[in-house]
Structures are given as structure tokens and as C-alpha cells.
Specification:
By secondary structure, the chain is mainly beta. The protein has 2 domains: 126 residues, Jelly Rolls (Sandwich); 98 residues, Sandwich (Jelly Rolls), CATH 2.60.120. The protein has no helices and 22 strands. It is globular and about 45 Å long.
Length: 239
């Protein structure tokens, strides 16, 4: 049985803390919508703008797979595992919070904004040993195709998490068509348009729109603008 849900960009939750401007696809912090708690194991998809030199002070997490994708600028990271690093556009970061961690994230620059996507995915194993991963992506592998950036396989392409989930980024020319075959029949797909526009199975999506679909094996994408950038999450739909 096919099922889909559409989240237009303008319907997302919003918060303005001065130093942080955020849009929430799913309920988070001061934004709550009982119809928008999660899509399958996807719990959080936050679209953040962080002022120069500002950020999130040390705070805890547990039993969550946390993925950070910088879109502009750079984020300085520190955590209780002893990791200290800077992630920037073209990088990806994964934290398996497991049995518990604390960390902080600050805009690394004092003279420019940082923009990032933060994604939380429920794990399929609880109380694992916390783990950190970071890598720089070859963005040429995203041109007119979906580049795998996260998977369940420690030896696979990209980073790995404790969940039967595959994340991809793609950047497509206008009118470029491509297909995506879902990895597991138990999975659905959540599509987030970072920029541009795309048509997916007859549904037209614009910048920052989100679209979840379940019950299909193959999805057809047709880009409707130059430099259309898409985040695709192939994820279990049952918790």
C-alpha cells in the first residue's frame, strides 16, 4: 500500500533566538505538531542558521544517530569522547550518541554565518558505545546522481550508523532524470530539497520542501531547475 506525506517549506516550525534561526520539519524544541513527530525512524530534520562566533553550548544526547551536514561556513565541534574538529561545506559528521555523550557546536568563523542541516535518526540498537565519524565528500560524485553518504555498513561508502538507513546527496542539471531503487522493502524514502526544484512521482517539490513516500520500489526524479540539490533518506518506516 502506497503512502505519502508532503511538508511544504513554509509549513515548517520556526524559531528565532537571535543568534540562531531555525526551521523544523518535525516537532522540536518550542515547535509541536502531533501530526509531525517523525517519518519512520527520521525524528529530526532541522535547517539552522548560526550567527558568527555563536553556537550550541555543551549539552547531552543518548540513543540517537545524529548527522550534521554543513551547507555554508564551518562548525567547530567538541565532545566528551575527546573529539575536537571543524566540519565545513562538503563534509559530513555522524555521532552515535548511544549510552550517552555531551558535545558543543559553534560557528567556527567570527565574520560569517553558518548554515547546516541536523538530522536525528532513531537507532536499531540501544546503549551502544558512543562513536564519532567525520569525512570530506567528493562532491563531483553528486553530479546528476545520488552519492551515498551514510549507510548501515562500516565498510560501505560514506559513514555508517546503527540503523538500516542509507542517506544520499545529489546535485542535478535542469531536466535531468534519474531513478532511485529503495534498498529494503520495509523502507520508505524521505526527500528534502536543499535548493532548486524537482518532480518526484508526479509531485513537484521546491526549495526546502520535504516529501515522504512508502510502498514503492523505484522512484523517478526529474530536476526542474539548474543546480537542484537533494537530500534523500532511505529509512525504515516502522520504529
Amino acid at each position: 500500500m502506497e503512502y505519502s506525506v508532503l511538508h511544504r517549506a513554509e509549513t515548517r516550525g520556526a524559531a528565532d533566538f537571535g543568534w540562531l534561526k531555525a526551521r523544523y520539519t518535525f516537532s522540536f524544541a518550542n515547535y509541536y505538531d502531533p501530526k509531525r513527530i517523525h517519518f519512520g525512524v527520521l525524528r529530526v530534520l532541522n535547517d539552522d542558521i548560526v550567527d558568527a562566533g555563536k553556537g550550541f553550548g555543551t549539552h547531552p544526547h543518548d540513543n540517537m544517530e545524529i548527522i550534521t551536514i554543513p551547507l555554508e561556513g564551518a562548525i567547530a565541534h567538541q565532545d566528551s569522547m575527546g573529539n575536537g574538529s571543524v566540519i565545513q561545506k562538503g563534509d559530513i559528521q555522524v555521532m552515535s550518541a548511544g549510552s550517552g555523550i555531551t558535545h558543543s557546536e559553534f560557528n567556527h568563523h567570527e565574520d560569517q554565518l553558518a548554515r547546516l542541516l541536523q538530522i536525528w535518526i532513531f537507532p536499531n540498537k540501544k546503549n551502544v558505545e558512543p562513536r564519532y565519524g567525520q569525512m570530506s565528500l567528493d562532491i563531483h560524485q553528486q553530479h546528476n546522481r545520488f552519492q551515498q553518504i551514510v549507510s548501515p555498513d562500516p565498510e560501505g561508502e560514506g559513514l555508517w550508523i546503527h540503523q538500516d538507513a542509507w542517506l544520499h546527496l545529489g546535485c542535478f542539471d535542469n531536466e535531468k532524470e534519474t531513478d532511485y531503487r529503495i534498498k529494503r522493502k520495509e523502507n520508505g524514502v524521505y526527500i528534502f530539497v536543499i535548493k532548486g526544484a524537482v518532480q518526484v512521482e508526479g509531485q513537484t517539490l521546491s526549495q526546502r520542501d520535504g516529501y515522504g513516500i512508502y510502498g514503492v520500489e523505484i522512484l523517478n526524479f526529474s530536476s526542474k531547475s539548474d543546480d537542484t540539490q537533494i537530500l534523500l533518506l532511505d529509512i525504515p518506516v516502522k520504529l
